[in-house]
Design brief:
Belongs to the beta-class carbonic anhydrase family. With 190 residues, the protein is α/β, with parallel strands linked by helices. Helix content is 39%, strand content 16%. The chain has two domains: 3-100 and 143-189, Carbonic anhydrase (Beta-carbonic Anhydrase, Chain A, 3-Layer(aba) Sandwich); 105-138, no CATH class.
Length: 190
Amino acid sequence: MSLINEILDYNKEFVETKQYQEFLTTKFPDKRMVVVTCMDTRLVELLPKAMNLHNGDAKILKNAGAIISHPFGSLMRSIIVAVYQLEADEVFVIGHYDCGMTGLNSDNVIEKVKARGVSDEVIDTLGHAGIDLNRWLTGFNHVREGIEKSVNIIRNHPLLPKNLPVHGLIIDPETGRLDLVDSGYDAKAE
């Protein structure tokens, strides 16, 4: 059976047996928070449990490395919408130890892209269009560096209120221990 059929079969039973009822909530985060975190599979259930988050408590945004790479990209837009439209009052940027974005080798990624059928012509065309794939596919040297950069972009965004607490943390993907990198409350006091 294909993965999509397996998912759809399960989903049909999930809906028919009304298993969704325990997850009913509103679109507004009960704890009035936004979490920006990594897409790492180890964090899917661990991070919410480690933070005592339940369905409906937070807006959780995920990408590779919890990196805000552009102040006017889609991740930043989601944060702005969560703050102004969905009543979130705090932002938590949470990276993790042993992240795949640490030391990401863009040349290696590009070689894998080519191995999966993307031609040199397409790569060259993107370069001529001003897209620097090596820069775009770069991670960070240490997870703390990535968290600090993302926190700084959010905290200094011209469309966000200056008193918005933006916190930076790192989670241990094995134990769930959270290490504080930057308290948004301390930054507000400055």
